[in-house]
Design brief:
The chain has about 500 residues and is α/β, with parallel strands linked by helices. Helices cover about 35% and strands about 20% of the residues. Helix 2 (about 85-100) runs antiparallel to helix 4, helix 2 (about 85-100) packs antiparallel against helix 5 and helix 9 (about 285-300) crosses helix 10. The radius of gyration is 24 Å and the shape is globular. The protein starts with about 25 loop residues before the first strand and ends in a 6-residue tail after the last strand. Bound molecules: ligand TXE.
Length: about 500
């Protein structure tokens, strides 16, 4: 089993748990069906680059069928009309079924996305079941307000499900992203068409099967696997879709908004890229800071929208911090994601692998100093060594662009004001972190950073109850928390005169 920096002793694949791929067809109107064209596409194992299975390739015609099924289920089906408690009961059953299949589901995400199996089993999959339970708990507590009007009118608001929603999800957290969108939409009473990322369709199709088993009525959840420019684009420009919730790149987020504007003005929420700063101040515990910095950007091999990819360190501790960081980087062992000791698996596919390697080359060419890593970590598969650059300046591509890999850009700052200025010098605003013992610094900086979340003395501090979403070009609209539920609801005002007045 390999360690960071040594590539020859890595043997891949190490342990492949028996995985039978059971679901490879589109799920429309409660049935697994072939695509209209009959076409399929390969889904690959990033540990080897080899094909795992062929999956039905949905396109515009399949999106039409899926939207039709969702429309019928919304306009005529029971789901939006059920009492909230009845929806909740079915959602709880769905969650229980997920709990019964944790290993199989974690295996699919490891095979398909190179994610750590141990993590999937202990964290990702159990927490998607809890996401369902969290929103199930809200399903019978959706209510409007009674309004105090200025005239002799009585009014109240109704919160109604927004309708048919299109959910477009990325490949870096195939299960988490599926349920972060599906769960509040279900609780609200919406029906939906999910378009998983082309790299990672397998768990989404399995969830479709479990949804049916749980008793979610046909047509409420439809899953159309396929590519972005075809199936994804058809969903965003569909005249019968009332809302699209998208997680992916900023570039495609822009296209989603354009398609919504050019079609039926459906509402859109976008969770996009980031280049999140982690600010480490002079008074920080250096060990803790180095651990957080590595966790921030190496977790899930850097394929995390909130990755703390810019680490800004105050000058008095910079040299010592760098020394500690390089030592600790060795703990981030690259290896087969099924192996319990691995902490960094392969990048999701060849395209992402090549993108990350090309940024590493840019970093070197731009004059940053490569402290550690920087090379492929295996002869086969898409493994990259945890990589740290220092002497990075604000104008370099590696400090501006989202790399989406295990690559850290280290910068030095002098004053608090300078730290804040560097932190905010980005088009993105998804996440940020601060390491300090000073309450004054923590308070000042957290109010000055333009980002959707500030983690103080922690990183990746997610919780389903905590709203999550970006500022600036990282998008808008929150996933997680009760704000997420409200994305799938719309407010209707009902007004009547109190007296028999001429109004
Ligand atoms: O993303 P895309 P890609 C960033 C990250 C990564 C880069 C490119 O920097 O390196 O994006 O990754 C669907 N209409 N993030 O190319 O294309 C697509 O099929 C409708 C950050 O994989 O944005 C997939 O389901 N949909 C991000 C989803 O969009 C379209 C997570 C995301 O893929 C479409 C992923 C279109 N025209 C990548 N084109 C995060 N915020 O976490 C594509 N899609």
């Amino acid at each position: 089993h390999g360690s960071n920096g040594s590539s020859d002793d890595l043997t891949f694949p190490l342990e492949i748990p028996p995985a039978k791929i059971r679901f490879t067809k589109l799920f429309i109107g409660g049935e697994f069906v072939d695509s209209v064209s009959g076409k399929t596409f390969e889904t690959i194992d990033p540990r080897t680059g080899e094909t795992i299975a062929r999956v039905s390739e949905g396109d515009k015609e399949d999106i039409d069928l899926a939207v039709g099924a969702a429309r019928r289920a919304f306009d005529h089906g029971p789901w939006p009309r059920l009492p909230g408690a009845a929806r909740a009961k079915i959602m709880h059953k769905f969650a229980d079924l997920i709990d019964q299949h944790i290993e199989e589901l974690a295996t699919l995400d490891t095979l398909n996305a190179g994610k750590l199996f141990s993590w999937g089993k202990a964290v990702d999959i159990p927490s998607v079941a809890n996401t369902l339970r969290y929103f199930a708990g809200a399903a019978d507590k959706i209510h409007g307000q009674v309004l105090k009007m200025s005239r002799e009118l009585h009014a109240y608001t109704l919160l109604e499900p927004i309708g048919v929603v299109g959910l477009i999800i990325p490949w870096n957290f195939p299960s988490t992203m599926f349920f972060v969108k599906v769960s509040p939409a279900l609780a609200a009473g919406c029906t939906m068409v999910v378009k998983p990322a082309e790299q990672t369709p397998l768990s989404a199709l399995f969830y479709a099967h479990l949804a049916k088993e749980a008793g979610i009525p046909d047509g409420v959840i439809n899953v159309v696997s396929g590519y972005g420019p075809t199936a994804g684009a058809a969903l965003t420009s569909h005249m019968n879709v009332d809302k699209v919730s998208f997680t992916g790149s900023t570039e495609v987020g822009r296209k989603v908004m354009q398609a919504a504007a050019a079609s039926n003005l459906k509402t859109v929420s976008l969770e996009l890229g980031g280049k999140s700063p982690l600010l480490i101040f002079d008074d920080a515990d250096i060990d803790q800071a180095a651990d957080l910095a590595l966790l921030g950007v190496m977790h899930n091999k850097g394929e995390v929208c909130v990755a703390g990819s810019r680490v800004l360190v105050q000058e008095a501790i910079y040299d010592e911090f760098v020394k500690t960081l390089v030592e600790k980087a060795k703990e981030w062992v690259v290896g087969d994601p099924f192996h319990p000791n691995s902490r960094v698996g392969p990048q999701v596919d060849k395209k992402q692998y090549e993108k990350v390697m090309s940024y590493i080359e840019h970093g070197k060419r731009e004059g940053a100093t490569l402290l550690t890593g920087g090379k492929p970590a295996a002869k086969k598969g898409y493994y990259i060594e945890p990589t740290v650059f220092t002497d990075v300046t604000e104008d370099m591509m590696i400090s501006r662009d989202e790399i989406f890999g295990p690559v850290m850009a280290l910068m030095k700052f002098k004053t608090i004001e300078e730290g804040i200025k560097y932190a905010n010098n980005t088009k993105y605003g998804l996440a940020s972190g601060i390491v300090t013992k000073s309450l004054d610094i923590a308070n000042t900086v957290s109010r000055s950073i333009k980002a959707g979340v500030v983690w103080i003395n922690c990183y990746h501090g997610f919780d389903i109850d905590c709203p999550f979403g970006g500022y600036k070009m990282s998008g808008f609209g929150k996933d997680f928390g009760m704000e997420a539920l409200h994305k799938y609801l719309q407010t209707k005002a009902v007004v009547t005169p109190i007296y028999n007045s001429p109004w």
